[in-house]
Design brief:
Radius of gyration: 27 Å
Structural class: mainly alpha
Distance between the termini: 68 Å
Mean pLDDT: 80
Number of domains: 2
Largest sheet: 2 strands, antiparallel
Strand content: 5-15%
Order of helices and strands: HHHEEHHEHHE
Length: about 180
């Protein structure tokens, strides 16, 4: 059994440890002013204040986030997917959504009409730049998941066809004279 001194020491450790900053993007409720004439309003506001500011709230939220990350591999941020070896990937969809990284995996290819529309838009841009005596180059920046795909979780490693970016490049090489930098 822990001695009285050890128990006090543990309590002091919790008091000394600095609060971990909250990741919430909202202002926490402030302590309401008591007014006997507005007791119903005070009770509602105090309930909001208490729920936002009860003891160890910030630490409990942080511990819950760490638990989800370390035990389940789930990020506390909906648009972030945790990959192998702690790599983080930004995604447009929640982690459980099957559309995650679908454009890169080839699940969501462009139609021929869409590719032709992209080609026409790029050629119109090229024409304007040429009139301004400016060289127009197409130099797309790759996404992190296309460069470091080996660090994606296993469920995202299936590739069924070319990515949307690869489709654009292939179409432009075959049907246009624009300068592409790959």
């Amino acid at each position: 059994m822990a001695s009285n001194f050890q128990q006090r020491q543990r309590i002091l450790q919790f008091l000394i440890i600095p609060d971990i900053s909250s990741t919430e993007k909202r202002t926490l409720a402030s302590r309401p002013l008591f007014d006997i004439r507005k007791i119903d309003d005070f009770i509602k506001k105090f309930d909001l204040f208490y729920n936002d500011n009860f003891g160890f709230r910030v630490r409990l939220v942080a511990a819950n986030t760490r638990l989800h990350v370390n035990l389940f591999g789930i990020s506390g941020v909906p648009r972030v997917i945790i990959g192998k070896h702690g790599w983080l990937f930004i995604n447009d969809y929640p982690p459980t959504d099957p559309r995650a990284f679908s454009s890169w995996q080839g699940y969501n290819p462009y139609s021929l009409d869409e590719l032709v529309a992209i080609q026409k838009n790029l050629e119109a841009e090229n024409k304007w730049f040429t009139q301004q005596n400016i060289t127009f180059l197409i130099l797309p920046s790759p996404d992190k998941h296309s460069i470091y795909s080996e660090y994606l979780p296993w469920q995202y490693n299936t590739i069924v066809g070319p990515s949307r970016q690869a489709q654009i490049f292939e179409h432009m090489k075959l049907h246009s004279n624009l300068q592409l930098v790959d």
